[in-house]
Amino acid sequence: MILPGCAFAQGLAIRGFLVKDIPAEQKLEEQAQAAPSPARLRRYMEFMSGEPHNAGSSRSKAVAEYILGSFKEWGLDAHIEQFEALMPYPTARQVEVLEPKPYTAKLKEPVVPQDPNSGDAHQLPTYNAYAATGDVTGEVVYVNFGVPDDYEWLDKQGISVKGKIVISRYGKSWRGIKPKVAAEHGAIGCLIYSDPHEDGYFQQDVYPKGPMRPPNGVQRGSVLDMPLYPGDPLSPGWASEAGSKRLSLAEAKTLMKIPVLPLSYADAQPILEQLTGPVVPRDWRGSLPITYHAGPGATRVHLKTDYDWTNKPLYDVIATIPGSEFPDQWIIAGNHHDAWVNGADDPVSGAVALLETARTLATLQKEGWKPRRTIKIAVWDGEEFGLLGSTEWAEKHQDELKRNAIAYLNSDSNSRGWIHISGSHTLEEFATEVAGSIEQPRTTKTLAEYAVHHPATEDPDETESAKKDKTFSIGALGAGSDYVAFLDFLGIASMNEGFGGEAKSGIYHSVYDSIYWYTHFSDTTFVDGKALSQYTALALLRLANTAVLPFELGHFASTVNGYLDEIRDEAKKSGQKLDFATLRKQLDSLKNNGARYDALLDRALMKESLDAGHLSALNTALMRTERVLTRPEGLPNREWYKHQIYAPGFYTGYGVKTLPGIREAVDAKNWPLAQQETEVVEQCLNDLNQVVSEAVNAVSGL
Predict the structure, then answer these.
(1) What is the DSSP letter of 580?
(2) Is there a contact between 535 and 438 (Cβ–Cβ < 8 Å)?
(3) Residues 527, 36: Cα–Cα separation, whole Å
(4) CB burial string 45-83: b at 16+ within 10 A, e below
């Protein structure tokens, strides 16, 4: 529902809309908010997660065709775009403890009688995609989470992993970082296990009694080195289609150099409990009933892996609602449809919400509505392997996307809780405004209010004034879902949104990610899915219908200043003082120019009509605000990543590194590079100020 306390209901502006146009937009949005149906969300999920549908399988194609058929049934212009990519399936998997006490790992998740999908045929085995083929035997070292800091402690103990197999627990960083760092330190193999401390019995009851990972549950997942580039490993920067050029396997920089396999904690314990060597620090200890030692000792493990190393098809489903006035201006929303197994939570819970958004817009279209700008709804394939479908599509259409794309909205899995949004900070005010226009499920608060003031974040010691001063904000985007190609490669303003925080999950990437689990332990009544659908629909409507694109610079300037403070403080720890004076000056100018622009915009939106020529120039300038934050040469040692403000960290994977060129140079204590990267960001901000000056000139003529 549209809340009576919404800004536009009080006669105030929706950013970018002429005041006279607000009543019609309000009526349209009320229709849109009434359309999504929890029952429909469940119906879509029952089909999509009814069988395993990993990318490259015939079932993945069937799910894509189901989505396509739904789009067409609703009257949308839709098609499937097919790509292909290297997607290795496993042909050999073996882990065995040779001594002192032999043990052969099961590498298999047992059927749960209550969950009929846990025994489905055609489940992908437990494995890590893009790990190397290998047959190795060696002593074992426990490396905690397997991040660079963990190896510093091992070095201090005189423990080397060279020539050894490491065992790491899932968590703290993306899984692909763990074998990457292990290989850099000379390890010959890597095992990654799920410790019950992170997502097992330490947190809550295990499945099926509770939502957490049972002893033999395993997290599958890709270990592609995505901080270098996502997408098909053999076609970095260009689309992978039938007949297109390919790198050789030896040339593909994102493939892991050592064999890797994931383990359950039931399979990991017989290895960990036999390790000797020093007892590890307290924060290295999980929740298994053992004393955690670093190793190596006498424990020897044999690890064997092999794969088919073949290209397989990808099926992206694209629906288009053409714009009536500006058909070459695109607003895009996406989610993925492929899963490691059944994937009711990841990704179907988010995909079904996007399907309801598409149906909502199709219903409005049938009733005569036409968006001013073109809306595209995309349901991607191959996300789980490494953002394959979205990256290949973005690389294929990169020239027209750079010309036409206004914004990209992404979602992935969805759960019970409050809305979480990350994205371009030029869209922070827009995201907040939309979140303030929709009711939080099970409450009378708005999404924005509940995200700030929900029971899980209420501090009893906090003063009432401090609680009232809290405001809704968005985070920065790293990696982990399909926005990466749009933001980091093409410089398209992007957001990622979804609900969570009130339901725990331990079934990630396992056979237990089923509709039985989802309807017992997550968004059981699909009302959070309905709210996500409402949020996406309203955001698309506003972006497509607004007169002036709703970008804003004040939040961006303040946020980047905060990033500079963090980097300054980090450099101080090493006794270094970085010169950010010019950067700060550019941000001050940006804040002043942004405030001037906002004042002029407020006045212009009171008019009955706007000058078409100046309006076109204004929106063209606003669209460029994100583009100028990219550089064609990309970031140091990873040219695919063009954005200079946001990127996944080289050693964090999913985790964002803001001002990545500067920050990672400081992390490496490479002070000349830090100064060089500071100058690159200075130029980006200078270019941004020039674009904002163009916007000021254009808005003055409206």
Answers:
(1) -
(2) yes
(3) 10
(4) beebbbbbbbbbbebbbebbebbbebbeebebebebbbb
Interatomic CA distance for residues 64 and 48, integer angstroms: 9
Q: Is the pLDDT of residue 228 over 60?
A: yes
Could you tell me which of 192, 195, 203 has the C-alpha nearest to residue 283? Answer: 195
Residue the block writes with tokens 């004393």: 291
The DSSP-derived string for 283-311 is GG--SSSS--B---TT-EEEEEEEE---E
For 157-295, list the strands marked E by DSSP. 165-169, 189-193, 221-222, 260-263
* Mean model confidence pLDDT for the chain: 95
In this prediction, residues 557-568 reach a mean pLDDT of 97
Q: Hey, which bits of 174-248 come out as E strands?
A: 189-193, 221-222
Which residue ranges form the domains of the chain, and what is each CATH number?
A: 8-87+311-545 (3.40.630.10), 90-307 (3.50.30.30), 554-700 (1.20.930.40)
Angle at 321 between CA 320 and CA 325, to 5 degrees: 125
Strand, helix or coil at 578?
coil
pLDDT level of residue 2 (50, 70, 90 thresholds): very low
DSSP state of 131: P
DSSP characters over 2-44: B-TTSTGGGTPPPTTS-GGGHHHHHHHHHHHHH---HHHHHHH
Confidence of residue 5 (pLDDT cuts 50, 70, 90): very low
Tens of pLDDT, residue by residue over 578-609, are 999 999 999 999 999 999 999 999 999 999 99
Residue listed under structure tokens 């706007």: 610
Contact 540, 334 (CB under 8 A): no
Confirm if 496 and 422 have CB atoms less than 8 A apart.
Answer: yes
Active site residues: 383
Contact predicate 146/182, CB 8 Å: yes
Beta strands 300-307 and 90-99, pairing class = antiparallel
Sequence-separated (6 or more) residues with CB below 8 Å from residue 494: 407, 408, 409, 410, 423, 424, 477, 483, 486, 487
How far is residue 592 from each of residues 557, 595, 613, 627, measured CA to CA in Å? Answer: 10, 5, 25, 21
3-state helix, strand, coil in the chain (%, to 5): 40, 20, 40
Contact at 8 Å (CB) between 425 and 517?
Answer: no
Q: What percent of the chain has pLDDT over 90?
A: 95
- Find, among 127, 45, 121, the residue nearest to 343 by Cα: 45
- Alpha-carbon span 590 to 596, nearest angstrom: 10
Backbone angles phi, psi at 550, to 5 degrees: -85, 35
Tens of pLDDT along 603-651?
A: 999 999 999 999 999 999 999 999 999 999 999 999 999 999 999 999 9
Angle value at C-alpha 152, between 146 and 156, nearest 5 degrees:
130
Query: Looking at the DSSP assignment, which residues form a beta bridge with residue 409?
Result: 333, 495
